[in-house]
Amino acid sequence: MLNKKLSFYHGKKVLVAGGTGMIGIPLIQALLKFEAQVTVVSLEQEEYAKGLLGSSIKFFRGDLTQYSTCERAMEGQEYVFNLVGIKGSVGIGVKRAASYFVPMLRYQSNLLEAAYRGGISRYLFVSSICAYPPSDFHEEDNLWNGLPKQNDRYAGIAKRVGEIEAETYLHEYNWDAVRVVRPSNVYGPFDDFNPATAQVIPALIRRTLDGERPVCIWGDGSVIRDFIFVQDVVDGLLLALEKAPPCFPINLGSGIATTIKDLAEVIVAKSNVRTSIEWDPSKPSGDPIRLLSIQRAEDSIGWCPKTSLREGIQQTIAWYMKNQELAHERKNLLSA
Description:
Elements: E1 13-17, H1 24-33, E2 37-42, H2 46-53, E3 58-61, H3 67-74, E4 79-82, H4 92-95, H5 97-117, E5 122-126, H6 153-173, E6 178-183, E7 185-187, H7 200-209, E8 215-218, E9 224-225, E10 227-229, H8 230-243, E11 250-252, E12 258-259, H9 260-271, E13 277-280, H10 295-301, H11 309-322, H12 324-329
Parallel strand pairs: 1-2, 1-4, 2-3, 4-5, 5-6, 6-11, 7-10, 8-13
Antiparallel strand pairs: 9-12
Helix pairs in contact: 1-8, 3-5, 5-6, 7-9, 7-11, 9-11
């Protein structure tokens, strides 16, 4: 294990924007182990946030769509992780498109400008797999080979804008702080388990364990996805901020093709319940295939995922079963 006192993060003042989310919580836990001085800004109430993250963090409640909040958040900081985002199930980006798209642009622009003006030396921007154009296999340099899929155009274009904004600061001002990662479908403890807004893994876990019989799933089960456990993503974020070149996007995925049918069978098996699965091919299920190349991550920052899908699902189910009250009260911004 890395000596925390020799760590890149030891003693550093680190801002985590969006730190009360699924990725933010284990990221902050890791930073605290490295004895970083962590500040979190979020829309959550302070009592709730410190209950999740611990009393050793500095926390303030603020709306990051307001530039003044971002400016205040940057005071005295050295590193920034921008984890702000809104996750959602298939179709939610169309139903509440403005509620997603407009705030995301404001978050990204305000945080980046405030970080530049505040003299931040390292800044991590979390982009997304949904920024890619339709393809069976996504390599980093292929992002601009077409527009994102129609059903992902709002989320995908918003993330593309964030990446381009970072490049403009590099080219015009020679501000080389920004690192960029593109995670695939992230899952794990502290996810959004609300079936109305959750992505496929937490939604199926909750519905299965809550007694839905049979479990009905949109599509026919043939859709292929790349699922990555949250702790593996956290490891990738930490390495990317330290070791990645500026504005050099890096995929963080499993690199393993998993059908929704296989996923559902793993969830049912690990849940230890008796139920059947019913498919509804009349409903949308998203792109047929989304799979990430992770070769660049291995070559440039020495990262590769360690958690298998079965192990990750088992850990997620175990967390959910022990923390159902917390899981049920956590909200996605779009469901507020």
